[in-house]
Design goal:
Helix content of chain B: 25-40%
Number of strands of chain B: 3
Oligomer: heterotetramer
Strand order of the largest sheet of chain A: 8-10-7-11-9-12-13
CATH architecture of chain B: 2-Layer Sandwich
Radius of gyration of chain B: 16 Å
CATH class of chain B: Alpha Beta
Largest sheet of chain A: 7 strands, mixed
CATH superfamily of chain B: Phosphoribosylformylglycinamidine synthase subunit PurS
Bound molecules: adenosine-5'-diphosphate, magnesium ion
Chains: A alpha+beta, B alpha+beta, C alpha/beta
CATH class of the largest domain in chain A: Alpha Beta
Largest interface: B-D, 34 and 34 residues
Helix content of chain A: 25-40%
Shape of chain A: globular
Distance between the termini of chain A: 60 Å
Structural class of chain A: alpha+beta
Number of domains of chain B: 1
CATH superfamily of the largest domain in chain A: PurM-like, N-terminal domain
């Protein structure tokens, strides 16, 4: 077999031969091809990812483990991570999305945490196309089809439409887990003499080399390059969750790792390498679903619902009895040894003998070339004059609020169980963050998911920073102090210099914002090669930020104006139309440069917003995001069922003021007895009283006049 | 003429049959020890107007291709009978 | 008040219902694993919780209904003691013939999770005695197969017997297609057996038991049961 | 001997077949105007060890009674063939 058939490049093969001091055999070659694929090795992005700040006062576990963990006090930790399942979902929307949800749940479980909530970031193509309808229908069914039975509520997400995703829909699944800080399980604590146990489903030929598949561009005819589809079984996953948590409770697990891409090989060699030990695996002991499986197939099978754990030999029978209670297959398939040898035996034959540390790391970084796109000047060539100004902005608001991107996402989240486990204080709906309670504690956890591909396309640095900032602003307004972030970097091929530049710049922008706002990155995932011959996705970094609300009193909700409340606008009055929903609506494509990232203003905003929520100075608050001030006002009216009449005495061109995006801005509804203190909190920050809540219409003198009832109808598509 | 078309859809060899596995276990657990294996699929009946049995078959086959069968994981067979 | 919650493989609202009942009534709630042979003898109330027992494969509730522990549940019911099935628990009760009917896929053919309004039409049974007659309450639903079905003559019979306890309705209490998200016959959301001691409903009272979860209409059910048991026991 | 048993399960007349209706609608919507009606049911394959075809049939029939079929809403038919 030639190394290229295994997916290796020439320099990688040379490095492999040099380290080994010999030619790898075929099975080793296949394993290394998968393990050194982009998907498993992160070879293209490792240097970039090191730009993220990863330490902070709340960080318990940062990148390197199966997921990150932040400390929320009272001995409780929240584990979280987001992961992509883009390529599988493009080929088999239901199964691809379903197994994406299952996979991220096992990442959280691997830490000994109980998975308590999921969120999903979905990016769909042209909403008019039947293809998009079929894909999105299958993907949404798949997410519910897995999340619902497995008993993990889907509490929120992000949905974004742009034609660049027509051939490459994106599915990013995020999961949060709860763990007592003194009960975290690590994947780095295996010791020689311990047993390697495989728990869960039998191993079949599912998704073999799926990991490698995730790293190649989709061919036009996906039927011909059809991979083996992995089928998820949420029923078994539910049993697996309960079994693992029972094993943890009983103190039987030394170390644990989920089986994701590249199955047994990846999980076992990772534990070995991180623990600084070797391992012997006995493949004739692996419970198989099919006959005649070759060692390389067993090594790389991506059969779902399996976990690998390290246990003391004396505890093996206890472990087996718990597996039996939960009707799960379990077997000792290896043992931990001293040294760095990772050996696979099939009967008496040694089929693989590789250094453990070589498998999961040591892949040479490709050093992609980076160059500034030549069309940058052209992209930035935009003046507001390109959009003719019309005083009456009512039709524009109508169009925006009913557009697929901004309208209600009920058709999606009503297919998800949002409440199971009884922790969902704020689920999906007309709000920007989701809130969970932690039973037995006063604390609440807020989580927001954001992405802003149009701005990242125009200016990846600014767009990346804006994405992170937007997520943190939403949390801060609700009273949640950001503790940590996870992210999924969805991009086309890094091998095109301009595309690698976009990737690098957006990571830099995100990192800058994280540092400025003291929000370390604790976990993440990268998905490259999201392109076909005719289409490539916009640069799409997605972030999920977890924040802490100290108690329910300090939480600020949105969409609950009361008649007579004072509506305040805080923030600068010069947002930008570049990359905004309004611009897309008017021009059909993004143009210009989004607002520059102002770290000072952002952190100032976060501090004041947190103060506002904690002191209970407002009744309702909403950070301004997609669709700008007008959309934020409309959404508040829709949920409150109350209108507002105002006159805008701000000299900015009104469509820019009302529909522009970017920068730290928010609207608040403040009861009259809190106005003084509210103003005091925001002193030194731009602040304007817009109106008093009341009436049946959203009315802005000279520019907007629309009934709240109509807003509700068109937003809900009734 | 209207033809009654019976379509049997089943998972391909090697594709994990989550339902079949669970049904088989539940049956053997309740005493059916002579059950070797179970697989669960779909049974779709279509009533199709056509000039001939062959035409009805062709139509059904196209419907399977277009909508009824997920060819990534499923196989199918068609039987036609005149009503 | 002694409550036992039966847990099947795939149940996923067991912990929720244990939390809600013990939180609201302050009483002891014990889990019973389906492989256990019996329900504790002191048990007053058996709850079969929501979830996806056996993955909801084949038919929702079918495999759980035929598992050994159900013999004990039937015995418990035949002694006139209380059995409550919620969501998948309701499906299990119909599959095991403790309650009449069968559940078909929602008319939308999708899973539906949302708040629903219900009319309480029967308040002379242990589960609902704290509700007012025709009170409108709000419980969430979360299911894919919740369309209650019964052949016409049997349907007429349970209506005549007054076995319908909860009906889907609009916020103003109208029994119409509007409030009936899953398409149940006669808007039926929950029914009781003729003896009045076995109740099944698709909506989730345990998800409407605490203010922070968005409503407390469900708490009345736990208080009803507690009141009845305290009275009977005394 | 192992017998391959094919069980077809379908909804009784009078039981609402939402899935069938939806399948029929999406097929006619995509141009199959000669489709009169569609019904969706289950196709279960069982492999049963038995001494004779009759015994295998009986076993399958009992399994249908016990678990596989809900007679309130479903009917079924069984076909047995030797493997
Ligand atoms: N894929 C999804 N899954 C679950 N909830 C979602 C999803 N997409 C959006 N939501 C929910 O809908 C609301 C608005 O979503 P979002 O996509 O951010 O739109 P907008 O830009 O209008 O805020 C949020 O409450 C969010 O949690
Ligand atoms: Mg949002």
């Amino acid at each position: 077999m030639h190394y290229s058939e295994a997916g290796l490049r020439e320099n990688e093969y040379k490095a492999l031969v040099e380290t080994l001091g010999r030619e790898p055999n075929e099975c080793e070659l296949l394993i290394m091809g998968v393990m050194w694929s982009e998907h498993c090795s992160y070879k293209s992005t490792k240097p970039l990812l090191s730009l993220f700040p990863t330490e902070g006062k709340s960080v318990v576990l940062g990148p390197g483990e199966n997921a990150g963990i932040v400390d929320i006090g009272d001995g409780n930790g929240i584990a979280f991570k987001v992961e992509s399942h883009n390529h599988p979902s493009a080929v088999a929307p239901f199964q691809g999305a379903a197994t994406g949800v299952g996979g991220i749940i096992r990442d959280i479980l691997a830490l000994g945490a109980r998975p308590i909530a999921s969120l999903d970031g979905l990016f769909f193509g042209d909403p008019e196309l039947q293809k998009t309808k079929n894909l999105s229908d299958g993907i949404v069914r798949g997410i519910g089809g897995y999340g619902n039975p497995v008993g993990v509520p889907t509490v929120g997400g992000k949905t974004f439409y742009d034609k660049s995703y027509t051939d490459n829909p994106l599915v990013n699944a995020m999961c949060l887990g709860h763990v007592k800080l003194d009960q975290i399980i690590s994947s780095q604590t295996a010791l020689p003499g311990q047993a390697v146990v495989l728990l869960g489903s039998k191993t079949g030929r599912d998704g073999i080399a799926g990991a490698a598949f995730a790293s190649i561009e989709l061919s036009e005819d996906t039927k011909s390059s059809r991979p083996n589809i992995q089928i998820g079984d949420p029923f078994v996953e539910k049993l697996l969750i309960e079994a693992c948590l029972e094993l943890k409770e009983k103190g039987l697990i030394v170390s644990m790792q989920d089986m994701g891409a590249a199955g047994i090989t990846s999980s076992s060699s990772e534990i070995a390498a991180k623990s600084g030990v070797g391992m012997i695996m006995y493949f004739d002991r692996v419970p198989l679903r099919e006959t005649g499986m070759e060692p390389w197939e067993i090594a790389l099978s991506e059969s779902q619902e399996r976990m690998l754990m390290i246990v003391e030999f004396e505890n093996v029978s206890h472990v087996m009895s718990i597996a039996e209670k939960w009707d799960l297959d379990a077997a000792v398939i290896g043992e931990v040894i001293e040294g760095n040898d990772y050996i696979i035996k099939d009967g008496e034959t040694i089929v693989v003998d590789l250094p453990a540390t070589l498998i999961g790391s040591d892949c040479p970084s490709p050093d992609w070339e980076s160059s500034v796109p030549s069309d940058l000047a052209e992209k930035w060539n935009f003046s507001v004059e390109n959009i003719p100004f019309n005083n009456d902005l009512t039709p524009d608001l109508r169009d925006l609020i009913s557009s697929p991107n901004l309208r209600e996402k009920k058709w999606i989240y009503e297919q998800y169980d949002q409440m199971v486990q009884l922790n969902t204080v704020t689920g999906p709906g007309n709000n920007d963050i989701s809130v969970l309670r932690i039973k037995g504690s006063e604390k609440l956890v807020g989580v927001s998911m954001e992405s802003d591909p149009w701005k990242c396309y125009l200016d990846p640095y600014r767009g990346g920073a804006e994405t992170v900032a937007r997520s943190i602003r939403a949390l801060a307004v609700a009273g949640a102090e950001p503790l940590g972030m996870t992210n999924c970097l969805n991009y086309p091929s890094p091998e095109i210099p301009e595309q690698f530049w976009e990737l690098s710049e957006s990571v830099k922008g995100m990192a800058a914002c994280c540092s400025e706002l003291d929000c370390p990155v604790v976990s993440g995932n990268v998905s490259l090669y999201n392109e076909t011959a005719s289409q490539r996705i916009l640069p799409t970094p997605l972030v999920g930020v977890v924040g802490l609300i100290r108690n329910e009193k300090e939480m600020l909700r949105c969409g609950c104006w009361k008649e007579g409340d004072h509506i305040f606008y805080v923030g600068l009055s010069d947002p930008s139309l570049s990359g905004s929903h309004y611009q897309m609506h008017k021009m059909g494509s993004p143009k210009g440069r989004p607002l520059i990232f102002n770290g000072q203003a952002e952190s100032d905003f976060v501090a004041r917003a947190l103060g506002t929520a904690r002191k209970g100075l407002a009744r309702s608050g909403r950070a301004i995001a997609g669709g700008g001030l007008a959309s934020a006002l409309a959404k508040e009216c829709i949920s409150s069922g109350i209108g507002a009449e105002m006159k805008l005495n701000i000299p900015t061109r009104k469509d820019i003021l009302l529909f522009g995006e970017g920068g730290p801005r928010a609207i608040y509804a403040v009861p009259s007895d809190k106005i003084v203190e509210f103003r005091h909190t925001w002193r030194g920050f731009p602040i304007v009283m817009l109106a008093k809540a009341g009436g049946k219409s959203l009315y802005i003198e000279g520019h907007l006049n629309i009934k709240v009832e109509e807003l509700q109808k068109i937003w809900r598509q009734e | 003429m209207t033809f009654h078309t019976r379509i049997l859809i089943y998972l391909k060899e090697g594709v994990l049959d989550t339902q079949g596995k669970t049904v088989a276990k539940s049956l053997t657990d309740s005493g059916y020890s002579n059950l070797r294996n179970a697989r669960v699929g779909k049974y779709i009946q279509l009533w199709i107007d056509a000039d001939s049995r062959e035409k009805a078959y062709e139509e059904a086959d196209r419907m399977c291709d277009d909508l009824l069968v997920n060819e990534l994981i499923e196989d199918y067979s068609i039987e036609v009978e005149e009503q | 008040m002694h409550t036992a919650v039966v847990i099947f493989p795939g149940s996923n609202c067991d912990r929720d219902v244990i939390h809600a009942v013990s939180e609201i009534t302050g009483s002891v709630v014990v889990p019973v694993w389906h492989k256990d042979t019996a329900i504790p003898t002191s048990t007053d109330l058996v709850i079969i919780p929501g979830g996806f027992s056996y993955g909801d494969y084949l038919r929702c509730g079918a495999m759980a209904a035929r598992s050994p522990i159900m013999a004990s549940v039937k015995k418990h019911a035949s002694q006139g003691k209380l059995v409550l099935g919620i969501c998948n628990g309701f499906q299990i009760l119909t599959e095991s013939k403790l309650l009449p009917g069968a559940m078909l896929a929602n008319k939308t053919l999708t899973f539906i999770c949302k708040q629903c309004f219900l009319k309480v039409e029967k308040t002379d049974i242990p589960f609902t005695l704290k509700y007012k007659n025709d009170q409108i309450v709000q419980f969430p639903i979360a299911h894919h197969e919740g369309l209650y079905f019964l052949p016409q003559d049997s349907l007429r019979e349970i209506e005549q017997n007054g076995q319908v306890v909860f009906r889907y309705c609009t916020s103003s209490g109208e029994i119409s297609e509007d409030g009936n998200s899953n398409g149940s016959l006669n808007n039926i959301a929950g029914i009781v057996n003729r003896q009045g001691n076995v109740l099944g409903l698709m909506p989730h009272p345990e998800r409407a038991s605490e203010r922070i979860m968005g409503g407390t209409d469900g708490a009345l059910m736990w208080n009803s049961i507690k009141t009845w048991i305290d009275r009977e026991g005394a």
